[in-house]
Structure formats: C-alpha cells, structure tokens
Design goal:
Blueprint lengths: L1 H9 L13 H13 L5 E3 L10 H6 L2 E4 L10 E4 L1 H14 L5 E5 L5 H16 L9 E3 L4 H12 L7 E4 L2 H13 L9 E5 L13 E4 L2 H16 L13 E4 L2 E3 L10
Parallel strand pairs: 1-2, 2-3, 3-9, 4-5, 4-6, 6-7, 7-8
Antiparallel strand pairs: 8-10
Helix pairs in contact: 1-8, 4-5, 6-7
Length: 261
C-alpha cells in the first residue's frame, strides 16, 4: 500500500482503501460503491477468479489488477513471479538435502495460490521427487488453516522434513502447530514461508521467507493506472507490457537447515 500512496500523492491523487475480506460478494458491493462515488480508477487485488471482471465492470472505470490475476486475464496488471519464486524456494530446500517436502497451499482459484503450487510441483518433478498426496494441504491463506494443515502434517506416520507455507498468515498458524506439537524448527522440520513481514527476522527461529517487492508493485501498479486515466501525461511514459511481472527475493534465515540423517 505504501508504494501506491507514494505514487498517488506524488501525482495529486488521494487513495481510498477498501477491504473485501476475501469475500467476492463484498468485493462486488464495494465496486458498486466506488462507481457511485465516481472514482477515477481502481487498483484491485482480486478475491474471485473471474465473476466481477466482465465488460460492464471494466467500462465503469479503469482497473489495474495488483498481486492477483483473474483467470484468463492478460492485461493491466502488476504481479510477482509466483511460479518462479516458489520454484526457487523448493530448489533451495532440495539443495539442503530435503526430499520429503510438504506444501500448505492457498486458494487455488486465485493466481497466487495456483502459481505457487505450480512452482512447487515444477521443482519437485525436476528433482524426480515424489509428491505425496498427504504432503499437499489445501489452506485458504488464513491463520487457522495454516494451524490445521500444520497439525495434519505433523501427525503423519512419516511427516515431512520441510514445509513450504504459501503466505505469512498460514505460516503463523503453522508455527503455532509446531510449538504445540513440541516439534523443534529447524532441527526436526524446516519451514519456508512465502511473504516476508516486518518481524520475520525477529521470530524464533528467524524465518526463511520469500520477500515480494510490495513497494515496487504498488508503485508500478499506480503508474500503470495513471497512464490509463491520464493518457495526456507524456511524463508517465508508455508501457508496452500488458502484465508486469516482478521478481521476488529468497531471504535465508534460521528456520531452514539440512534434515537430520
């Protein structure tokens, strides 16, 4: 959000924040309200795969998608390379010697959920490692699902030696499950989390994470929206990319280590 605010205010706009709480119906309602208030444009982190993005919605005001893409959408968006970031994360765990690697995935009807799962599968398949059904846990990007999925993984007869959690909220739930199960990290199980957050380096253990370029994402999305809203502004430049894809960064800390022999 900071990148959006910085770029908007630099260009004389005041951003308005609306939270749909991952509810597509609430998202539709909020878009109706924004239309009634005659906003100049919308940056949208989609909570639904496609329902609200028909031609009628797009004719109301310019929309640029940020972080998440609706199914089949190929224009006006700024996102992280979720496939590549997840692939790099799993390759790193494999390089430590892990073979039994589990994933706590998010909503698969959202591009963030499906793309991170794709990166996981790609890395595992390239290393010729078995993707066990019980090592795939379907979460919903919320804390409680990370906790529930974590407990299920830790209670397996042959638990994983590493767990890839697909966002920071689910990671918090996973760490709670590890604590309650008295499962030391990374001595018994390594944890790698998608999303860095301010206190990840102050957690115990310090969490290995994938850091998204959130400030740059917000800045570029706002600039893209400004170009659509103000085609007369030559100083904003012209982007030839319909979808801007930004690289994430793997930040290695203390929650990952080689598995016990």
């Amino acid at each position: 959000m900071r990148g959006v605010e910085d770029e908007a205010r630099l260009n004389g706009y005041s951003p308005m924040l609306c939270n749909s709480n991952e509810d597509p119906e609430q998202e539709r309602h909020l878009l109706d309200i924004l239309f009634s208030q005659r906003v100049d444009g919308v940056l949208l982190a989609a909570s639904d795969s496609s329902a609200v993005y028909d031609r009628l919605t797009r004719r109301r005001f310019p929309i640029v998608f940020i972080d998440r893409l609706p199914v089949g959408h190929k224009q006006n968006a700024v996102v992280t390379d979720n496939v590549g970031a997840a692939y790099d994360a799993i390759k790193y765990l494999i390089s430590l010697g892990h073979e039994r690697i589990a994933i706590i995935a998010g909503h698969l009807h959202l591009s963030t959920g499906s793309d991170r799962l794709e990166g996981y599968r790609k890395a595992m398949q390239e290393a010729h490692l078995l993707i066990r059904d019980e090592y795939f846990q379907g979460g919903d990007f919320q804390l409680e699902s990370g906790y529930r999925c974590g407990l299920q993984l830790l209670r397996l007869a042959d638990p994983p030696t590493a767990i890839f959690s697909c966002n920071n909220k689910m990671t918090l739930g996973l760490m709670r499950a590890l604590s309650e199960s008295q499962m030391p990290c990374p001595e018994r199980v390594s944890v790698l989390s998608f999303d860095d957050f301010e206190w990840a380096a102050n957690f115990s253990p310090k969490l290995t994470t994938i850091a998204q370029p959130t400030h740059e994402m917000g800045k570029q999305a706002m600039r893209m929206l400004l170009r659509i809203m103000r085609p007369d502004r030559e100083d904003l430049g012209v982007s030839e990319e319909n979808v801007v894809v930004l690289k994430a960064e793997l930040r290695i800390r203390d929650s990952t280590a080689s598995p016990r022999s």
